[in-house]
Amino acid sequence: MNHPLRDLRQKSYILFDLHQDLLHPLIFKKEEKLDFFKFNVVSIFTLIPWEDKFLETYNVETVLRQIETYREFAEKNGIIIVENKKDLERVLKGNKRGFILEIEGCASIKDKYILKSFIELGIRIFTLTWNYSNHIASSFNEENDYGLTNFGKEIVLKIVENKCIVDLAHSSRKTFYDIYDLKIPFIVSHTGILKNPKNKRNISYKEMEKITERKGIAGIGLGNLFFEKEIEKEEAIKEIKKIFEKFPETVCLGSDLFGLSEKNIIKGLYSYNEIGEAFKDFPKEFLYLNAYKFFERNL
């Protein structure tokens, strides 16, 4: 009998990754064959270069082009765009891999009709902010933390009404608690989890308890910034095990693959093969089951 965690065609353990910036290598490196995980949340990273940094775009056309880039790639490579529970099950039980499409930074959503169009094109996760605040919510970088706006609340409730997911990666503390107070399920797709984080990009044990209370999930990012120090692969794995043991129903993988700066990359944890090998002996709850159950409940 085969091991229950084996994907027979890929001959690898099932992994569910809550965040990858895959669009960059697809567009700029023209990648055609990548050894994806079984389930991959792939980001529509809505940024444009400006001087020596990036700014979030409000341009709907840019977002549409990025969505179509993923959809064309998925169709060409036999990847299922996961839009509902049946798609989840098809990926799990079949010989396919799955993409869940996520918009990272919702500045382009100027009204409920744009939101509806994005949902109809297969977007199922909405990360409210990136590193800059917008008309929906404030980012972790915001000095004047205003949280969720009235318009943002309207959009968030529409997201949930349409069986889609709110993601609070990059969000401010007030945004986090405003969403918590709405009593809706949510995720934090890629973050650090520390008892008392100094970097506002990361979340505390207290916030993890709130996520657990809402039956949400949080993905641990695989970069130095998520541990708030330069860290070696072996130490990172040990720390992740400890966090998982503390929050066994809530913690998942949220690698931030392809989205980290050079200074934040952990050597030995920056490719599909390296990550898969590093975590192959982890419990199935971390590998895929916590994330799978969350999406099964909420899509």
Write the layout of secondary structure elements.
Blueprint: E1 6-7, E2 12-13, E3 16-20, H1 23-28, E4 39-45, E5 47-50, E6 53-56, H2 60-76, E7 80-81, H3 85-93, E8 98-104, H4 112-120, E9 123-127, H5 150-161, E10 165-167, H6 173-181, E11 186-191, E12 193-194, E13 203-204, H7 205-213, E14 217-220, H8 224-227, H9 233-246, E15 251-253, H10 272-279, H11 284-298
Parallel strand pairs: 3-4, 4-8, 7-8, 8-9, 9-10, 10-11, 11-14, 12-13, 14-15
Antiparallel strand pairs: 1-2, 5-6
In short:
The chain is an alpha/beta fold. It has helices at about 25-30, 60-75, 85-95, 110-120, 150-160, 175-180, 205-215, 225, 235-245, 270-280, 285-299; strands at about 5, 10-15, 15-20, 40-45, 45-50, 55, 80, 100-105, 125, 165, 185-190, 195, 205, 215-220, 250-255. The longest helix is centred in the N-terminal third of the chain and has 17 residues, at about 60-75.
CATH topology: TIM Barrel
Overall number of domains: 1
The geometry reads as globular
Termini distance?
32 Å
Percent strand equals 15-25%
